[in-house]
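Hey team,

Filing this mostly as a record. A colleague (T.K.) asked me to run one chain through the structure pipeline before their review meeting, and I want the input and output archived in the tracker in case anyone asks later how it was produced. No errors, nothing strange. Just documentation.

Input sequence:
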Amino acid sequence: MTQKTKMEVSEEWFRRVWLEEDTSAIDEILLPETNASGLGSHPHIGPDEFRYFHAGLLGLMEQVTVTSDLHIEQGDWLAQLVTVKGVCRKTSREVSMLGQMMLKIIDGHIVEGHNHFDFISLYEQLGLLPDQTFEDCLAGKVLA
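Output structure:
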C-alpha cells in the first residue's frame, strides 16, 4: 500500500473534518501528542482542545470548504496558503477568510501545526464584530 502524500493528508483533513463534519477524523489524523498553535488564546492546543475549536466554528458556519491556493513541501513539512469558505448558520450568508498553515506530517498523521487565519474578517462577516474592526483598531479606536 502506498503512503499518502502530505497534500493528500491535508486534503483528507479538510474534507472530513470541515466539510463532512466527521469528528472521528480528528482522532485518526491527529496523534494524541499533536500540538497546534494559532487557533485561540492558548499558545498550543492538542486534539481534545481542537474538538472545542471545531465545534465552536461549526456552530457558527456550515458547508465549510478549504481550498489550498498555494503549497510548498520540505522534508516533513507542508506549508499552505488556503481559502476557507462556508455559510453563516444564522444568516445563510456566504463567508470566507484566508489563512496560512504549516503542518508537520509524519506517516499520514499531522503531528504539529502552526496556523494564521484572518478570524477578524470572518467574525465581521458572521456579524460578531463591527465592519472595519481591523481598520478601527489600527487607527487606535477602542471597540465598545
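Quick notes for T.K.: The chain is about 35% helix and 40% strand. The longest helix spans residues 6-19.
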